[in-house]
Structures are given as structure tokens and as C-alpha cells.
Amino acid sequence: MRMLGRQLATARRAAGLSQSGLSAALNINEETIASIEQGRRTLKPDIAEIFDDFLGTKGTLAAGVANLPEVDQFPLWAEEYMDQERVAIALSWYDALVVPGLLQSEPYARAVLLNRVPAYDEEQLETTLRLRINRQEILRRKCPPTLSFVIWEPALRLRIGSEEVRGEQLRFLREMAELPCVALQILSVESPFHAGLNGPFTLLETPDHQHVAYTESQRGSQWVSDPEEVSILARKYAMLRTQALTTQDSVGLLDHMLGEQ
User: Fold this and answer.
1) Are strands 201-205 and 90-95 parallel, antiparallel or unpaired?
2) 124-158 as b/e, with b when 16 or more CB fall inside 10 Å?
3) For 38-82, what is each residue's pLDDT tens digit?
């Protein structure tokens, strides 16, 4: 990734362009170009072809992308999502199976990862766990994003790990609910309506106000940028928020669950 980034930077400078100039010419976010050139962001095949055509690099970048070694910690689209998550100005997350990763306590996150099939080896487990916990830095940055979470109640009642792990997770979630940047709502099992039956998803607003979405399934992930598809998920999320408990009642339910411990 760093090598491809340096090749892009070299071709850009040879064309007499700054990062902002290339951004304006191709309508690609300047931060995206900077991240690729620094090796912090994967160069996607379609973008590589655009750069090759514009900069006259004759397929060099596209060939490099096609031959990247498969040593990444995450699937391509998951990596793209996490890259955008770090700089997002708003994020809306619905989950039905587990507590959202940004709100997981370390013992709970470890228990979730230990349930993976096939299992991680010890080194993979520790690396993945650390990467997941480090993502929570956005919650405490100077200007955090606006964060909205809707969690289906069964995800909070699953005894993943142990009852002690579940209790610690509920306390951590209660603490996170007090953060000014976080709006947490629980979709009760008593609700006769549920707009999220097709599974979890995340909506994200980028610094340049693009609206995108991300979904995961058993065998893959999908980065959704088509405006019509993003709109459908945004409407689902809006409906979920009306069907879920209010933030105040959600905190009350968390307190009730903690009282049951």
C-alpha cells in the first residue's frame, strides 16, 4: 500500500499537480488522495484505473492493486469502512446480534471474538481485539462525531462469555450512554414493529457530507454508496428510531437489567 501510494504521488508530481489539484480534476476527496499516498488507505481497483487514465501511468497502479498480497487484517470493504469511521462526522448504527463494536467493553469484545469459527490463533485474537478497542478513540476525541445507536434488546440479554462479562458490558454501555455525542436507543422485544429484520447496518456521513452505508453478513461485507440504496437504509434507520424506546427509557431499561444482576 505504501509503495502504491508513493507511485501515485510520483505520477501526480510528474503531471505538475498538487493533491488539491488532482482532487479538483477528478472530483475525488483530497483527504482520500492524501491517505492513499501515505499508505493509510487501500487504493481501490476502480480508482486506480481512473488515476492510470488521467496520469498516463498505463495501468501500473491497477496492476499493483491486482497483485497486493493478501495479508490484510480485514476484508477490503471492512477496511474501507474503518478508514471512513475514523473521520466521520456522523454515524448511525443498528445491531441485532451483539453490542456495536464501538460500544463493546474489552472483556465482551474478547468473548465475541472467541466465538469466531474458525477460531483465531492467540496472536490474531490479540491483534484484532486491540484494533477493535482502539476504534473507540473517536468517542473521546476533541470533536467527536454525532453517534446514534439502535440495539435490539436480545443482543443485550445474550450471555456471551459469562454473566460477569455481560454485567460489565451493561455497565460500560450505561457509561457510554452518558457521553454528549452518543444517543442510545433499545428496540424492545415487546415492540410489535421492527424495521431491521434484514440485519444490522451502519450509516455514515463523511467530512465532505457524502452519505454512505456499510453492511455485514456471514461471509462478507458490503460498502454501499449508491444514493438510492443508502436512502433505503436511512429510511429504515429513521423508522427503527421511532419504534425503539426513547433515549431516556432506554437508559431506564439498562438500569433495570443491571438491577437484575
Assistant:
1) antiparallel
2) eeeebbeebbeebebeeeeebbebbbbbbbebbee
3) 887 888 889 999 999 999 999 999 999 888 765 444 455 567 778
Helix or strand run (H / E) with residue 115: none
Residue 74 has what pLDDT?
46
Please state the φ and ψ torsions of residue 34, each to the nearest 5 degrees: -60, -45
Residue in this structure with the C-alpha cell 457521553, named with its chain if needed: 179
Q: How would you list the strands of the sheet with 90-95, edge to edge?
A: 182-187, 146-152, 90-95, 201-205, 211-217, 220-224
The pLDDT value recorded for residue 75 is: 53
Pairing, β 146-152 against β 211-217: unpaired
The answer to whether residues 158 and 96 touch, using CB atoms and an 8 Å cutoff, is no
**pLDDT the model gives residue 69:** 65
| Residues 109 and 129: beta-carbon distance below 8 Å | yes
pLDDT of residue 77: 58
CA–CA separation, 171 and 91 (whole Å): 22
- Output the pTM of the full model: 0.72
Q: Which residue numbers in the chain have pLDDT < 50?
A: 71-74
What is the C-alpha end-to-end distance of the chain, expressed in Å?
Answer: 48
Give the strand pairing for 90-95 and 146-152.
parallel
